Structure prediction request, 206 residues.
Amino acid sequence: MKLIGSLTSPFVRKVRIVAAEKFIDYEFVVDVPWEETTQVPDFNPLGKVPVWVLDDGKTLFDSRVIVEYLDSVSPVGHVMPKEPRPRIQVKRWEALADGVCDAAALVFVEKKRPTAQQSPDWIRRQTGKVHSGLKAMSEELDQQKVPDSWCAGEVFTLADIAVGCALSYLEFRFPELDWRRAHPNLSELYDRLLRRPTFKDTMPVG
Ligand SMILES: N[C@@H](CCC(=O)N[C@@H](CS)C(=O)NCC(=O)O)C(=O)O
Prediction:
């Protein structure tokens, strides 16, 4: 099995961490979808990473589909609860964290355009989503009320992986945002996540 992706994408990283937490072997093929030489559209008509290539050549995307697949094929280190209610809460956390990444990535891409072509309104709109997403994550983490709780309760899950990847991406691309100061509980969670080898080994580079 192969994973196609870049070393900076938070969505690719989420898949890498889930695979590592579950001890699933695969070949990692680095491909940056923004480069002219990219092969990604041959594997995903949307031209986005991550893409997971199965042994029979069939492809899976996007990251939410891939992690659901990985969690279902191996009983080791489940990252999603089986029960419908807690399971959907974990997926909700994932949607929130991924949404923050989507908005932040749109700002990053917009800011790479020549200044005259950039839309300040668009940047403001997407930056607003990053801030409101962070605020929601912080408030919802507070609701756990148990010291050192994970996002979805007492057990480490995909919710923590997705949130950790989003926080890392913001720190990597937008250090000036300083979310750690605004949200000390997310900062504490993030430090705990960084102690896991699966997070340490996949820090964004580039
Ligand atoms: N919802 C998708 C988002 C994937 C995504 O936006 N990937 C970015 C990299 S961070 C990408 O490949 N962008 C290339 C493009 O939009 O053309 C997922 O969860 O996999």
Observations:
- The chain has a mean pLDDT of 97.
- Residues 97 and 163 are 5 Å apart (CA to CA).
- Strands lie at 2-5, 27-30, 51-53, 59-60.
